[in-house]
Amino acid sequence: MQHKPMVVNVSAYEGGKRLGDITVDEISEVLARPQTFVWVGLYEPDEALLSKMQEEFGLHELAVEDARNAHQRPKIETYGGSLFIVLKTANMKERQVVYGETHLFVGPNFLVSVRNGESAGYSVVRERCEETAGLLSKGPGFALYAILDFVTDNYQPIIEQFEDDFDKLEEGIFKSDFDRLVIGRIYELKRQLLELRNAALPVGDIASELMRFHDELIPKELRAYFRDVKDHVARLVGVADNMREMLNSAMQVNLALVGVSQNEVVKRLAGWGAILAVPTVVFSLYGMNFKTMPELSWQYGYPTAVGFTVVVCVLLYRRLQKTGWI
After folding, report:
1. Which CATH architecture has domain 257-322?
2. Domain coordinates of the chain in residue numbers?
3. Inter-axis angle of helices 140-173 and 223-284, to 10 degrees?
4. With b meaning 16 or more CB within 10 Å and e meaning fewer, what string describes 285-310?
5. What pLDDT digit, counting tens, does each position of 87-125 carry?
6. CA 133 to CA 142: how far, in whole Å?
7. By C-alpha distance, which of 79, 101, 75 is closest to 206?
8. pTM of this prediction?
9. DSSP alpha helices (H): ranges in the chain?
């Protein structure tokens, strides 16, 4: 199995223009230059590489410790003059949702992205930023926005796939028969929706905080971009919540239909029970072996009893059929 390199990219930018790739050891030298910032992309770095990043950028030890230990909750934390942000990334892989993590260290003149697990690379993001040199000249704040926007955009195909799955489930949901497979798929879809919602919702909170605070890292000119990210997240979370409500309603409707169907069965059984009760009562009389029984002394007693039973049963059948019980 081929392993991805831990250092994906280390680039320097000045005035929004890319100066070129640099080595890890050259980071300190480049950071000393005015109007310059460094963008580092890492993938599952080992402890030695993270320690090197901590030394080069002066990262807080608690933030570095969180980056060492993956499976962090999405959050934003301030350490002195830098930020530590954790994002939950999501991608579709063979019709299955796979989640990863991205840890971001952001300072006035640097951005370090640390990817863990199944996470799409940010080369597309980097190319997009380099095409808009005017915005990139604002510093690492625009690169941070581009990553947040990219992560949010990757949620959209997943929610659309969930909508398609729900449409396919609807036909099986609105049946009067209880289908364990359909109910199981509904629960699985609800679980996946909740998992995606929990991944996306904190991104909106992070964008909201970046809009209101951290002026030294996020210039006023970039706040509208973070508001756009927040709007995208809010729309996605709204769709997820609506789908969960629809799934809950569909399950309740399905259970109600099953209950109605069972009631129809009970009504039919009760109707046939009423019909069978007539011959049961009549013919049970013949179990009373008394010598003075009137029917025994009347030659038409037996056919009269049978005829009476048949007539009553037919009348009951027609009556119950008319009222919908049979």
Report:
1. Up-down Bundle (1.20)
2. 7-256, 257-322
3. 20
4. eeeeeeeeeeeeeeeeeeeebeeebe
5. 888 887 777 788 888 889 888 888 888 888 777 778 888
6. 10
7. 75
8. 0.72
9. 27-31, 47-57, 61-68, 123-131, 133-136, 140-173, 180-212, 223-284, 301-322
